[in-house]
Amino acid sequence: MSSDSFKTSVRVTWADTDAAQVVHYSKYFVFFERAEEEFYRSLGFSFVDFRNRGLWFPRVEAFCQYKKPAKFGDLLEIELTVDELKVKSVKYGFKVTNDETSDLLALGYLVVVAADRQTGRATQIPAEIVEKLKPFHK
Amino acid sequence: MSSDSFKTSVRVTWADTDAAQVVHYSKYFVFFERAEEEFYRSLGFSFVDFRNRGLWFPRVEAFCQYKKPAKFGDLLEIELTVDELKVKSVKYGFKVTNDETSDLLALGYLVVVAADRQTGRATQIPAEIVEKLKPFHK
Amino acid sequence: MSSDSFKTSVRVTWADTDAAQVVHYSKYFVFFERAEEEFYRSLGFSFVDFRNRGLWFPRVEAFCQYKKPAKFGDLLEIELTVDELKVKSVKYGFKVTNDETSDLLALGYLVVVAADRQTGRATQIPAEIVEKLKPFHK
Amino acid sequence: MSSDSFKTSVRVTWADTDAAQVVHYSKYFVFFERAEEEFYRSLGFSFVDFRNRGLWFPRVEAFCQYKKPAKFGDLLEIELTVDELKVKSVKYGFKVTNDETSDLLALGYLVVVAADRQTGRATQIPAEIVEKLKPFHK
Q1: Which residues of A touch B34 (CB under 8 A)?
Q2: Closest CA to A28 of A106, A125, A101
Q3: Is the CB of residue D46 less than 8 Å away from at least one CB of chain A?
Q4: Which of B99, C23, C83, D91 could be cross-linked to D83 through a Cys-Cys bond (beta carbons 3.0 to 4.6 Å apart)?
């Protein structure tokens, strides 16, 4: 059974670049998060909804492997997949490609945990969110 | 005779916010520049073209007045106008509004100068660029 | 009568630079704020104290004039002065110089307003803060 | 035989925080790089020296595990170790602790590769750099 993936695009702005004339390596983590936000928006909810339920989704692990540099003005495609779906955490995979050349630029992941905003403790991901994530689970 | 304006939109991402739970004041300058880049793209050229002509466009002045805060997830409309068009410099005006509420969030400007990349000296803006900017000059 | 000024230094890191191989123009506003924070720390208080009093200090205006570029690895000196001290707002002036060459790189200012965190309205700057700022008022 | 480690400190500035009122997860990668830069400076060289030799040091992998949040105004200690030292690459380990409480906040690593600026290909790390890194190799 195949799984769905979510794709969004990001245009590299001048402020994303560094003196090596490529996108600064830390910015990929901003792109990953932006894709995650757009993914939630596409499913009909947002970080703000989580907050209203007394939840938030801190990142507990972040990883990126850099294959080829991205440059100013490049249009990047960010593909998000749900690589692991546990009771209290989700691992999102990210694949960054150059939209024009289709070159693979970077691969990465984020592990995010559902946490109670009062206690800070890990808690269950609400059932209706789990339902929405399932089709994207590899 | 009325002048044209250019509009683009920016979605506030989590990395744009600060601990006051609003967009960090320095990020407006990133948004201004992003609007400027999209403006050039809409006219058919880019910072890269300038570079290939041995030119670049350093900022010599930047200003922003903050009216109301922008928050995570807000869709912002950035309007760009050409407020002054001189032989060697352009002053761009920016108006940031909340796309949903139409609230005015910020007003600002950037003065950019055409500079020779070899000598660093201010130089004339190429005639065909001036022609493209003219319709946006207030 | 002469006034005091406050000085702090900032080392340019790779993430501060852009593809023109100079510090991105938006980063000066981060440097200004960092100097402001160090200034408060030197006076014995912080943004956190303001928050505990139900206050915060949003920026209402920001300006910077760029004279010469700063580069990766440069040690910058940031000088802060209190240019205006009003009942509800302060205007801080900033002067950025290259510590090694003494070249003037940038001049700027920030206008910050004391605001009630509940209502969002401008309010008086607490008297003991005003007392501490006075010696720095030009 | 024990190995040396390098330590530097970073003060959390307002621009490092996000709307969860903690340091944004992408900023740890900026802190890692800043520690790396200070490490090179302590050894007597810099990214600029590498560039002058026709080399640069792109990051090929970046990882961070987040243990506890850092907040505005916190003084962080960043400890750098040389975890792997290969012919063409170095793996730096990073440990971020709260300087006041000694709480462990984050653990991470960066893999950087020596690359020829002309060809972009991986190349040998110059011998005198290897010599300087050896005492820090675990």
Answers
A1: 13, 15
A2: A106
A3: no
A4: D91
B-interface mutation test, from C16, C21, C29, most B Cβ less than 10 A away: C29
- Phi and psi dihedrals of B2, rounded to 5? -80, 160
Please check whether residue C72 is in contact with residue C12, taking contact to mean a CB–CB distance below 8 angstroms: yes
pLDDT in tens, C51-78: 778 888 999 999 999 999 999 999 999 9
Mean pLDDT of chain D: 93
Convert the pLDDT of each residue in A53-104 to its tens digit. Answer: 888 899 999 999 999 999 999 999 999 999 999 999 999 999 999 999 999 9
Nearest-by-Cβ selection for D14 from B18, B71, B72 = B18
**Which of A25, A91, A121 to substitute to test the interface with D, most D CBs within 10 Å?**
A25
Asked if D27 and D71 count as a contact pair (C-beta separation under 8 A), the reply is no
Determine contact, residues C38/C45, Cβ cutoff 8 Å.
no
User: Which of C37, C38, C42 is best to mutate for the D interface (most D CBs within 10 A)?
Assistant: C37
ipTM (interface predicted TM): 0.94
Residues in chain B with CB shorter than 8 Å from the CB of C64 are 61-63
Which residues numbered 52-111 in B keep a CB inside 8 Å of some CB on C? Answer: 56, 58-66, 69
Q: How far apart are CA D70 and CA D64, in angstroms?
A: 14
Note whether A66 contacts D56, CB cutoff 8 Å. Answer: no
Number of Cβ within 10 Å of residue B15's Cβ equals 23
- Strand order of the β-sheet with A59-66 is A6-11, A75-85, A89-98, A104-113, A59-66, D59-66, D104-113, D89-98, D75-85, D6-11
Strand ranges inside C13-102, DSSP E: 55-56, 59-66, 75-85, 89-98
Amino acid in position D104: L
pLDDT tens by residue, C4-52: 889 999 999 999 999 999 999 999 999 999 999 999 999 998 767 777 7
Q: Which of A126, A106, A127 is nearest to A53 (CA)?
A: A126
> Does D33 contact C46 at a Cβ distance shorter than 8 Å?
no
Residue D124: closest CA among D51, D40, D55: D55
Q: Which residues pair with D23 in a beta bridge?
A: D17
User: How far does the CA of residue B54 sit from the closest CA of chain C (Å)?
Assistant: 12
D95 exposure class (CB count in 10 Å sphere: 0-12, 13-18, 19+):
middle
Centroid of chain to Cα A121:
22
> DSSP label at D43?
H
Q: Do B47 and A72 touch (CB under 8 A)?
A: yes
Q: How far apart are CA A34 and CA A42, in angstroms?
A: 12
**pTM, 2 dp:** 0.96
Answer whether C30 sits within 8 Å of D48, measured CB to CB: no
CA distance A132 to A135: 7
Token pair listed for D112 = 């950087």
